[in-house]
Specification:
Elements: E1 10-20, E2 23-34, E3 38-42, H1 49-57, E4 64-69, E5 72-73, H2 79-82, E6 85-88, H3 99-109, H4 114-127, H5 143-155, E7 162-165, H6 173-190, E8 194-198, H7 201-207, E9 210-215, E10 218-223, H8 225-230, H9 235-240, E11 245-255, E12 258-263, E13 266-272, E14 281-286, E15 292-294, E16 302-313, E17 316-323, E18 328-333, E19 342-346, E20 353-355
Parallel strand pairs: 3-8, 3-9, 6-7, 7-8
Antiparallel strand pairs: 1-2, 1-4, 4-5, 9-10, 11-12, 11-14, 12-13, 14-20, 15-19, 16-17, 16-19, 17-18
Helix pairs in contact: 3-4, 3-5, 4-5
This protein binds adenosine-5'-diphosphate and magnesium ion (MG).
């Protein structure tokens, strides 16, 4: 396959809006996708991910804004004229057609000649490793195999853009990891441009060149996985990136770049100030794995908590503990703890993020 030939330089999503009656599912989305990129749209259920993807595909008309590809307007074209490949969570295969016919269907609709069609279908079947199953029907395949058929059906058309809507959510955990690697491998080896929708931050971080984090139809942050993971712009994105602890604090004093923040049973001296003024209400965000269990309360920046629940995770334990204020903490540690233990947890100041 030579999908490189169809690759575009830039696709602009420009102030795109989509409303369903009074519900605004997408509010003025701006995003530029470069040919060859793998972009993940990330956010919880209902934040507008599928709406954005369906607007790109042409399955939903926009209620505002425009989409252009290399300067040409495409949001006015019907889906078949855009010619994007789509892969959905529920596979959407034709049940009465064999694997081979499912994969070749789009090519036969496009009146591609028989020899060419067979060559391209063979190649797609080989790429998704279904050669031994090509004469089976969807009902005779596992979920993972069905999703491979759906992927082959999308890429066989050598589309300029492949759109995937939570394609792995119906698979069990082991298969999900395997197919994740498979999708990234196909993206790279075929030089595809992919927009991938997921609510799973780990999947988005693992797959994408760039993440777009959405909340209630609004883009919160766009950046590389490293960037979004290390520098989330607000408490919402931080929560999505694994900062499960949000301690309610007040900025007690500021000194240049640093601040002292205090809350119920918490005093952190020297966190990054993030331009907050003294007196401001804020949250201090901490990842579960960033706490260290220490033996005494007299170390700086330590909180004391009571262990309530301990889950065994092999090398680590996932611990739910409670501060004297009643706030719950999530902690991951190598220390062996038990319910009822009183622990002192050191908070590493350089890893705490403070948001208003
Ligand atoms: N066909 C529809 N009719 C009415 N409301 C819809 C429709 N599709 C989506 N919505 C609403 O738009 C919002 C975004 O939905 P969706 O894009 O499906 O979110 P996600 O894919 O992130 O879970 C939700 O509030 C949802 O209820
Ligand atoms: Mg969805």
């Amino acid at each position: 396959m030579n999908s490189q030939a169809e690759r575009f330089a830039e696709l602009h999503i420009d102030k795109v809006q989509r409303a369903f009656g009074d519900t605004v599912a997408l509010r003025g989305m701006d995003l530029t996708i470069k040919g060859g990129e793998f972009v993940a749209l990330l956010g919880p259920s209902g934040c507008g991910k599928s709406t954005a993807l369906n607007c790109l595909a042409g399955l939903l008309p926009l209620t505002g804004g425009r989409i252009t590809m290399d300067g040409k307007r495409i949001d006015t074209l019907p889906p078949e004229r855009r010619g994007f490949g789509m892969v959905f969570q529920n596979y959407a295969l034709f049940p009465h057609m064999s694997v081979r016919r499912n994969i070749g269907f789009g090519l036969s609709m496009r009146k591609v000649g028989k020899a060419e069609l067979n060559r391209r279908v063979d190649e797609a079947i080989r790429l998704v490793q279904l050669t031994e199953h090509e004469h089976k029907f969807p009902a005779q395949l596992s979920g993972g195999q069905q999703q491979r058929v759906a992927i082959a059906r999308a890429i066989v058309l050598e589309p300029p853009l492949v759109l995937m809507d939570e394609p792995l959510s119906n698979l069990d955990a082991a298969l999900r990891l395997e197919m994740r690697t498979e999708i990234r491998r196909l993206h790279q080896s075929l030089g595809l441009t992919t927009v991938y929708v997921t609510h799973d931050q780990e999947e988005a971080l693992a797959l994408a060149d760039r993440l777009v984090v959405l909340r209630s139809g609004e883009v919160q942050q766009i950046g590389s996985p490293e960037d979004v993971y290390a520098h989330p712009v607000n408490a919402y994105v931080a929560g999505f990136m694994g900062y499960r602890n949000m301690l309610r604090v007040t900025v007690e004093s500021v000194n240049g770049e640093h601040a002292v923040v205090t809350g119920d049973g918490v005093r952190l001296a020297g966190v990054n100030r993030e331009s907050l003024p003294a007196g401001a209400a804020a949250v201090a965000a901490v990842r579960p794995e960033d706490f260290t269990v220490v033996s005494s309360p007299d170390e700086d920046n330590t909180v004391s908590a009571a262990v309530e629940i301990v889950e065994y995770h092999g090398r680590e334990q996932a611990v739910e503990a409670r501060l004297s204020s009643g706030e719950q903490l999530h902690v991951r540690t190598n220390n062996r703890l038990a319910p009822g233990d009183k622990v002192f947890l050191k908070v590493p100041l350089e890893r705490v993020l403070v948001f208003s």
